[in-house]
């Protein structure tokens, strides 16, 4: 069956591959939305944390011999710890002043991280092997899907939905939201608000690192892998609504699908689809599709 002269199988195949990219968009935009929605920080270091997660997994698996699964578990914890150090030593000093300062600080940290890794690893890039358990591919009828890419889609969906549930449907999430909206009142009830803020930023950093670990076998590892993706992810967050958890998840997945479709009908314009949609959304709904109007 053909649609506009293009086979249905080709369209479905590109949509599935677009969903893989959408999975990375969803996980990264989720971490950004958590940090902005709960802390009000525009975290420009998010792409660098994604890159650090990928390189931490590479060092653990290749140089320490821990293997993919241990690296998948430990890398987000390590990078989350780095995020906690950043929050405790630097960001906490900027909470009560103009948010532009936290944006500039995190942007500077991203440049430092890229420069250090470029000095150590160079710019040629490294390869990170797919684990043996996820080698091979599955015939879906309309395409042959590599097993690892299918795993990425399922893993990202599970992580995104669990994170949404924790923040929106549990007592912990309620305390987090209350602590950021009225910290003095929540502290009066004996809740350690600074600890919650610290763990929130660390959790957002860990989500970025987890996306980096999952992306490592799919893309080539380079110090610039985060900066090349973070602009797209910021666009995803703006479209979904700054601070909207579910909006970031759904927008990331849908935009990945649309990007895959664009590669079928107009490959040259596939890289700008996200930004065209962002402009349209900002014109008609400045708060984003799922955001709340000020």
Walk me through what this model shows.
This protein has 294 residues and is mostly helical. It is built from eleven helices and four strands. The protein has one domain: ABC transporter involved in vitamin B12 uptake, BtuC, CATH 1.10.3470. The longest helix has 32 residues, at 8-39. 45% of the residues are buried. The model has no long low-confidence stretch (mean pLDDT 87).
* Category from helices, strands and their pairing: mainly alpha
Count of domain modules: 1
Q: Kindly identify the CATH topology.
A: ABC transporter involved in vitamin B12 uptake, BtuC
Strand order in the sheet with the most strands = 1-2
Tell me the span between the first and last alpha carbons.
47 Å
Q: What can be said about the biggest beta sheet? A: 2 strands, antiparallel
Short note summarizing the structure:
This protein is mainly alpha-helical and 294 residues long.
Descriptive keywords:
294 residues, two-stranded antiparallel ribbon, ABC transporter involved in vitamin B12 uptake, BtuC, mainly alpha
Write the layout of secondary structure elements.
Elements: E1 2-3, E2 6-7, H1 8-39, H2 46-63, H3 68-89, H4 99-121, E3 137-139, E4 144-146, H5 147-169, H6 171-181, H7 183-188, H8 193-215, H9 227-240, H10 245-265, H11 273-284
Antiparallel strand pairs: 1-2, 3-4
Helix pairs in contact: 1-5, 1-8, 1-9, 1-10, 2-3, 2-4, 2-8, 3-8, 5-6, 9-10, 9-11
């Amino acid at each position: 069956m053909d649609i506009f002269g293009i086979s249905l199988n080709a369209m479905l195949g590109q949509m599935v591959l677009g969903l893989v990219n959408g999975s990375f968009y969803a996980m990264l935009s989720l971490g950004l939305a958590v940090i902005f929605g709960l802390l009000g920080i525009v975290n420009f270091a998010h792409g660098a944390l994604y890159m650090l997660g990928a390189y931490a997994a590479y060092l653990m698996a290749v140089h320490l011999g821990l293997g993919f699964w241990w690296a998948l578990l430990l890398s987000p914890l390590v990078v989350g710890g780095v995020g906690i150090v950043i929050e405790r030593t630097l960001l906490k000093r900027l909470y009560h002043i103009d948010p532009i300062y936290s944006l500039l600080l995190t942007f500077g940290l991203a440049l430092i991280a890229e420069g250090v890794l470029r000095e150590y690893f160079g710019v040629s890039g490294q390869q990170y092997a797919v684990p043996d358990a996820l080698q091979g591919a599955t015939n879906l009828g309309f395409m042959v899907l590599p097993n690892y890419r299918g795993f990425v889609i399922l893993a990202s969906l599970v992580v995104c939905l669990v994170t949404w549930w924790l923040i929106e449907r549990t007592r912990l999430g309620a305390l987090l939201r209350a602590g950021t909206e009225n910290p003095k009142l929540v502290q009066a009830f004996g809740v350690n608000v600074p600890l919650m803020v610290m763990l929130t930023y660390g959790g957002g950093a860990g989500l970025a690192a987890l996306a980096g670990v999952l992306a490592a076998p799919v893309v080539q590892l380079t110090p610039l892998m985060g900066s090349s993706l973070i602009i797209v992810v910021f666009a995803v967050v703006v479209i979904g609504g700054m601070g909207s958890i579910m909006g970031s998840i759904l927008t990331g997945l849908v935009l990945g699908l649309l990007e895959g479709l664009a590669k079928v009908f107009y490959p040259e314009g596939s890289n700008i689809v996200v930004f065209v949609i962002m402009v349209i959304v900002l014109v008609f709904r400045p708060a984003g599709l799922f955001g709340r109007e000020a």
